[in-house]
Design goal:
heterodimer; A: 108 residues; mainly alpha; two-stranded antiparallel sheet; 2 strands; elongated; B: Rna Polymerase Sigma Factor, Chain: A; Arc Repressor Mutant, subunit A; 74% helix
Chain lengths: 108, 159
């Protein structure tokens, strides 16, 4: 680089002695740090995922046993009491209307 | 050529390239060793006869990162290895410091080409391959880098 002044900043420097030996030592003393880190990280991530699943799981109220009540007016009819869910519907007016049309199907 | 032969053949060039980024002997050697640790991890896939360019590519990347981290450490007041200053007893100490600052002020596209041309011992085609640029660009960027340094030195009164 003769276009530039001859100063130490531009001169070729000799690297510190013993570079190859130091590199050998470093390679010999270096178990795969990255791989070990991943082995530790995998169980931690799995445990965290399980904890999140458990915490985020919706909690249902205790389920009452299903009760079956026979209807004495109709032979063979049973009323089945369903388990109440966590969401309660607001009370509403119940309307019973006539069916707009009734088609009779005759089974043969 | 094998791993160690590559190190022996290019240690000086790689060290000098890294040094022009970190301006510190210990950091420059660390950068070169870090690069060879990476090469060692990839040893199963490396063609050692053609690995010189790859070694320079890795060293340049690591040297840029080290330079940034050193600048951050200094900005935060954290302990960092001191940048080696030229010997004050040298008559050319001021000029040397000025040249260093001129190199520091170069954009990386020029600085990387300049230090690779000066210290790597690779030809323009190999430098171009290592830097991912066209072969003809190597010469033009080198000339631009030299011209910028000379112009800046003239501004600083070292013309």
């Amino acid at each position: 680089m003769d276009e530039l002044p001859d100063v130490p900043a531009l001169r070729v420097l000799e690297p510190p002695a013993g570079g190859l030996a130091a590199l050998r030592e470093r390679l010999a003393a270096r178990p795969s740090r990255r791989r070990r880190w991943w082995w530790l990280a995998l169980p931690a991530v799995a445990a965290a995922a399980i904890a999140l699943l458990l915490l985020g799981r919706p909690r249902h109220p205790p389920v009452a046993p299903v009760s079956v009540l026979p209807d004495p007016t109709i032979d063979g009819l049973y009323w089945v009491a369903s388990t109440p869910g966590p969401r309660r519907l607001p009370p509403a007016v119940l309307r019973i209307e006539d069916a707009p049309a009734v088609a009779m199907i005759e089974l043969r | 050529m094998d791993f160690e032969q590559l190190y022996v053949a290019h240690e000086r060039g790689l060290y000098n390239v890294a040094y022009r980024y970190v301006w510190n002997a210990d950091d420059a050697r660390d950068v070169v060793h870090d690069a060879f640790v990476r090469l060692w991890r990839k040893r199963a896939t490396v063609d050692w006869d053609r690995a010189a360019g790859l070694a320079y590519t890795i060293v340049l990347g690591l040297a840029r990162n080290r330079r940034r981290s050193l600048a951050i450490r200094r900005a935060l007041g954290l302990p960092a290895r001191e940048v080696e200053r030229p010997d004050a007893a040298l008559a050319a100490a001021r000029l040397d410091a000025a040249v260093r600052s001129c190199i520091d002020e170069l954009p990386d596209r020029l600085r990387s080409v300049l230090v690779m041309c000066q210290y790597s011992g690779l030809d323009h085609a190999a430098i171009a391959a290592a830097l991912g640029i066209a072969t003809g660009t190597v010469g033009s960027r080198r000339n631009e880098a030299v011209a910028r340094i000379r112009a800046r030195l003239a501004e600083l009164g070292h013309g």
